[in-house]
Amino acid sequence: MSLLEDKTAVITGSSGGIGRGIAQTFADHGASVVVADIREDPREGGTPTHELLQEEGSEATYVECDVTDYDDCVAAVEAAEEFGGVDVMVNNAGIVGPQDPLVDLDLAEYRNLVSVNLDGVVNGSKAAALAMVERGEGGSIVNMSSVAGMVGYGGITPYSAAKGGVRLFTYALASELGPDGIRVNAVHPGVIETAMTKEDSPIVGTEQEEQLLPTIPLRRVGQPEDIGGVVTFLASDLASYVTAESIVVDGGQLNSE
């Protein structure tokens, strides 16, 4: 079943990690994909995402995009015109940023985190919304938050604040864009196996993962395709009456604590 046939999606931060998983799932369901990322090569190694999708018979292209630069986000949305124009915008790009107590926090590092994780979502949403409203055919915007955007976690206080901002921005934007037929939703991943959770904030493959697994009802950490499936649903017509919603994808951990 091709849930996204004839739809074009722009996915930020999709060269690797969760974004790559979303891009692959979208392509499997018939979407044309604009891979918008600050880098072309996956951090995990392997074939660039857009080339992989092309090899598998899907329409895809890569656009260098720094989400902190609004003009870059506009260029990514414009690249979707090659495939008929943007139908779906996935604001996925993000970083872990500083993991110091507030009293030791480098404010320049904090501003950089907010610029990527929150301002980047605003930039991408604005660029996509303008194009969607102009086309007059509705659309879907999916913003990547985190379980840390639902419950604040000490040690990653700046990250929690930014992701919480994404959640409330999503609800407010859904109210604004609903009359134009544009749905806006947020996804809140738990621990997903990516370079971020292996290198930037090491959890996967460490003793911390062993301690974490018994608290997750499904007894495993997530994979990028787990997020890809949920985002595909939100982008598809199956979710035509779903907006201003948060979906937690964490194997059940948050609601089992």
Describe the structure.
This is NAD(P)-dependent dehydrogenase, short-chain alcohol dehydrogenase family. It comes from Halogeometricum rufum. Belongs to the short-chain dehydrogenases/reductases (SDR) family. GO terms for molecular function: oxidoreductase activity, acting on the CH-OH group of donors, NAD or NADP as acceptor. Residues 7-190 form the Ketoreductase domain. With 257 residues, this protein is an alpha/beta fold. The protein has a single domain (8-192, 223-256), classed as Rossmann fold (3-Layer(aba) Sandwich), CATH 3.40.50. It is 40% helix and 15% strand. The protein has helices at residues 17-28, 49-55, 70-79, 107-135, 157-177, 195-200, 207-212, 224-235, and strands at 8-12, 32-37, 60-64, 88-91, 139-144, 182-189, 246-249. A seven-stranded parallel beta sheet has the order 3-2-1-4-5-6-7, with helices on both faces. α3 packs parallel to α4. The chain is globular and about 45 Å long.
